[in-house]
Design brief:
Distance between the termini: 20 Å
Strand content: 15-25%
Number of helices: 21
Largest sheet: 7 strands, mixed
Strand order of the largest sheet: 1-3-2-6-5-4-10
Radius of gyration: 46 Å
Helix content: 40-55%
Length: 713
């Protein structure tokens, strides 16, 4: 029923449904990913804004404390204090004179007092450090340590602000000794303020703050709140560890202008609940924008679907007309329902015609191939008798023949070499020079001769004398080239001393297009030719001292590292090992690496020497080819059409992926054979199919038969 409904629906309806499903799914997952990303961004922004605001609060608190200290200095030097002390202290009283919410005679006027932080407690001591008078802004219990201040307290708070505790309650204390002009101590003025939530809030100014501030005491690796701007939310004695899940926390050191006999830091808190509210508000706006964008994309996809479906219907009609006009297929076709299904049925019929024609062409090609093969064998026998390398190529310089001399000279077997570009054995510059010489000699039909540096399979470089001549057909058209190559390494080496040879090797490595390198037994580069700059953007000095794995992505380095370990262990040459490297500019470059071991006089491995070439574009081409094959498999899957080939000489049967799917078989568990093909056919149809195949083989004709199959389940 589903299959019938699928054929009944038009391609437009199918594509529209598919677009809605895919679009909704993609939007759903993208919304999850983007929400996570935006949440991280918003949280980072809030944390940065929180950090900025806490910095401002710390500066405000510091300024507030400085005003507290400056107030002591100002009050001790104001005229009212000077006049008061000039009259002298009256007789000592017990208890000392108390001023409750009324300014004593030694205070400056009210306008001057407004310039400083409000004073909660002020004590005036005589020269023997006895409290003679004190001021209270409001009635409160005064710690005994303040009514009888010790010399240590006075000295520690002298000319600075001291943060300390009395009976577990935090106070800030600042004192100033008043010295007469004759250098005699007249009195000591002490200002004290209880650090409670009012003090902390007042220090931050009259602004609305979304975060809380506290002073935290550190004792025995445990941090507890000493005081805060909100005792209900952050009561004194609360451990910081108990608040980390509920608040964002930033801790700052006390400033240098303030002393403390305790390990105290300023800590700021922002409720996580407020952070979540701010983030959710931002995410809600972002989600609305994405919904509008998703709707616009779906609308555009719908319009595109309409356009594509119209073109498919037109293509179907044109295809049927082509069949009827060019191939003479007169089968009637209804242009209703799924246009792709209609096109698929017509494609099946056309495929049968193509397969039949291809078989005829193959038979003719086999006959011609046998004749050509006989000629090639005779030529190869002659060429194999020659000691030096004789190589033939097509007009694109792809190797077409490879004699025994070439195998001995280069180390590649005939099967390895045929089909490879001849540039494999040249440096890029010398190959370009050779190509230029050959192009210049095309008109004159002259033989191109030159000495070049060539590369063996082992990675070894050698000098060769190359003669390249043109191959022409009967009409005079160039069809390829024949190359005669002779090893002249010994001749070249004998022409100069060792130093000259080293210089020539250096010049060679710097001129060829490939990158030549050497590593020691630990895999560390000891030499790199300048070509490394063109491949990876590094100068040789930047590479020497590193390893090949240092310039690879992490996953690639792990994979190639295992391969290199095995190569070093076996001490064998390797060739064409492809690996991904990271260019200095951050891009990825695919290199093809070949190398050979280097041994000392005693046969011990001292490193490897080899070459790298850039095969990034070639790798992309291979991926494109694989993609093309995947598209063919997909097309067969869509059309539910399989293809197969049967090599009668070897009995090898090859099925496409769709054939496996049609028979309901798994490709990994079955190697196709004629026997397995017959086993999948319905018992009642097996004899008819087998007879049809055998008749086709005997008569060398194609066959067409319908039969049933038995699925594994």
């Amino acid at each position: 029923m589903i299959n019938r409904l699928s054929h009944t629906l038009s391609i437009t309806a199918k594509m529209l449904i598919l677009t809605m499903i895919i679009g909704g799914t993609v939007w759903f997952f993208l919304d999850i990913v983007q929400e996570k990303h935006l949440r991280e961004i918003y949280l980072s922004g809030l944390e940065e804004q929180f950090d900025h605001r806490t910095t401002e609060d710390s500066l405000s608190f510091e300024s507030y404390i400085k005003k507290f200290r400056l107030a002591v200095e100002f009050f001790s030097q104001n005229p009212a204090m000077v006049d008061f002390l000039a009259k002298g202290f009256p007789a000592p009283q017990t208890p000392p004179v108390k001023h409750l919410n009324s300014a004593p005679a030694w205070f400056p006027d009210q306008q001057q007092r407004k310039l400083f932080s409000p004073i909660q407690l002020a004590f005036l001591l005589d020269s023997r450090n006895q409290v003679r008078e004190f001021y209270m802004r409001r009635e409160a219990n005064i710690p005994e340590e303040l009514l009888k201040p010790s010399a240590l307290l006075i000295n520690k708070s002298q000319n600075q602000s001291l943060l300390t505790t009395f009976a577990g309650t935090p106070y800030i204390v600042s004192s100033k000794k008043i010295i007469s002009k004759r250098g005699i101590l007249q009195a000591t003025l002490i200002f004290v303020s209880l650090i409670d939530e009012n003090f902390l809030n007042h220090s931050r100014g009259n602004f609305i703050h979304k975060h809380l501030m506290s002073l935290v005491l550190s004792e025995n690796e445990r941090q507890t709140i000493l005081t805060s701007t909100n005792f209900l939310a952050l009561p004194p004695g609360t451990s910081i560890d108990n608040l980390r899940k509920s608040y964002l926390i930033i801790s700052r050191d006390l400033f240098d202008d303030m002393a403390s006999d305790l390990k105290i830091r300023t800590v700021f808190f922002m409720p996580v609940r407020k952070v979540e509210i701010l983030i959710n508000e931002s995410l809600s706006t972002s989600r609305q924008q994405r919904l509008i964008l998703a709707f616009s994309i779906l609308l555009a996809s719908f319009l595109t679907t309409l356009l594509v479906s119209r073109r498919i219907r037109r293509l179907t009609r044109d295809f049927i007309k082509f069949e009827q006009r060019e191939l003479g297929l007169k089968e009637a076709t209804q242009l209703k329902g799924d246009e792709v299904a209609i096109l698929n049925s017509r494609f099946k019929a056309l495929t049968l015609e193509v397969v039949s024609s291809r078989e005829i062409i193959r038979n003719e090609a086999r006959q011609l191939a046998k004749i050509a093969e006989t000629k090639v064998k005779i030529q190869n026998q002659i060429l194999d008798q020659i000691h030096d390398a004789i190589i033939s190529t097509d007009i694109h310089h792809q190797i077409t023949s490879w004699n025994s001399g070439a195998e001995r000279l280069f180390g590649y077997g005939q099967e390895e070499a045929v089909g490879q570009p001849i540039s494999t054995f040249f440096s890029e510059s010398e190959y370009q020079e050779l190509s230029a010489r050959v192009d210049a000699d095309k008109a004159t039909n002259q033989t191109c001769e030159l000495d070049v540096t060539l590369l063996k399979k082992s990675g070894e470089l050698f000098f060769g004398h190359l003669s390249m001549s043109q191959l022409r057909n009967e009409s005079g058209t160039i069809t390829g080239f024949i190359c005669y190559t002779k090893d002249i390494t010994q001749q070249k080496l004998s022409e100069s001393a060792l130093q000259v040879s080293k210089q020539r090797f250096q010049a060679l490595t710097e001129s060829i297009n490939d990158w030549i390198w050497e590593v020691n037994q630990d895999g560390i580069y000891t030499y790199a030719s300048p070509r490394i700059y063109d491949l990876l953007g590094y100068f040789p000095d930047e590479i020497i001292g590193t390893t090949p794995l240092d310039n690879m992505p992490k996953d690639e380095a792990e994979k190639i590292g295992e391969i290199f370990s095995k190569i070093f262990h076996e001490q064998k040459p390797f060739k064409n090992l492809r690996n991904i490297n990271i260019h200095k500019n951050g891009s990825q470059v695919v290199l093809e690496t070949s190398g050979a071991p280097i041994f000392d006089e005693t046969g011990n491995l001292i490193g490897y020497r080899g070459v790298d070439r850039d095969v990034t574009e070639q790798n992309k081409a291979s991926e494109a080819l694989q993609k093309s094959r995947d598209l063919l498999n997909t097309a067969q899957e869509i059309g539910h059409v399989g293809s197969w080939e049967w090599d009668l000489s070897t009995g090898e049967l090859t099925w496409s992926d769709e054939v496996f799917r049609i028979f309901g078989l798994k490709q990994q568990k079955l190697k196709p054979s004629y026997k397995s093909f017959l086993e999948a056919i319905h018992p009642e149809d097996k004899a008819a199919v087998d007879n049809a195949v055998r008749k086709a083989l005997d008569s060398e004709r194609s066959y067409n038969i319908e039969h049933r199959i038995v699925l594994p389940d």
